[in-house]
Structures are given as C-alpha cells and as structure tokens.
Specification:
Layout: E1 3-7, E2 10-12, E3 18-25, E4 33-39, E5 46-51, E6 60-62, E7 70-75, E8 80-85, E9 94-102, E10 107-110, E11 114-118
Parallel strand pairs: 2-11
Antiparallel strand pairs: 1-3, 3-8, 4-5, 4-9, 5-6, 7-8, 9-10, 9-11
C-alpha cells in the first residue's frame, strides 16, 4: 500500500519560512519523480516544484512564482522529499500536496495535503 504523508504546514507571517516534508512508503522512492503542488481556495491545483528520480540526476524545476524562494530536495535513504519555503507571501497560502510519479509504470500517487497559511 502506497502512502505519502505530508507534514510541516502551518500559519506563518509574511516573510517567514516553513519546511514541508513528505514521507513515502510502498514505492521504490528513488525511482519516482517527486513533486509539490498547491491548491488555493477557488483555484486549480498547480505545480510548485518537481525533483526528478535518481536516474535523471534528481534535476529540479520550479514554478516561476516560487523561483528563488522555494527549494525542493529529496533524501532517498529516508524516502522523503522536502520543500523549503522562504520569503513566504500571502499568495502562497494553499493546501500543499505531495506527488509521486513514475510515468513508465503509469503510477501516480498523492498525499492528503497540508495547509500553509501566510498571514499577519
């Protein structure tokens, strides 16, 4: 059974930082592309950042809105992906979801989401 469990969300003031974690089980973690997505109220879910599988040198890509502020990383030994979020803005407020994707196997899994609220 595949599980993706996010943690680290919460309430933070503008300009603050949070680090999200997503612990995976039931998959060969290192072979999966891992991503963070977010969904704000009334909006569609959008990509925040991806980090490729170890077979693709764990390359990263980011949404333009978070470049230079957010950093995605992974620890394959711990089957965990992280999202370090700095200089947070109110428009970063959303539910953040972890995703695991292995296109060749048509495998795609989602976590339950963690709420991030940026407000003074």
């Amino acid at each position: 059974q595949v599980q993706l469990v996010e943690s680290g969300g919460g309430l933070v003031q503008p300009g603050g930082s949070l680090r999200l974690s997503c612990a995976a089980s039931g998959i060969i973690f290192s072979r999966y592309k891992m991503g963070w997505y977010r969904q704000a109220p009334g909006k569609q879910r959008e990509l925040v950042a991806h980090i490729a599988a170890i077979t693709s040198s764990s390359s990263t890509n980011y949404a333009d809105s978070v470049k230079g502020r957010f950093t995605i990383s992974r620890d394959n030994a711990k089957s965990t992906v992280y999202l370090q979020m700095n200089s947070l803005k109110p428009e970063d407020t959303a539910v953040y979801y972890c995703n695991a994707n292995f296109a060749k196997l048509a495998s795609d899994f989602w976590g339950q989401g963690t709420q991030v609220t940026v407000s003074s």
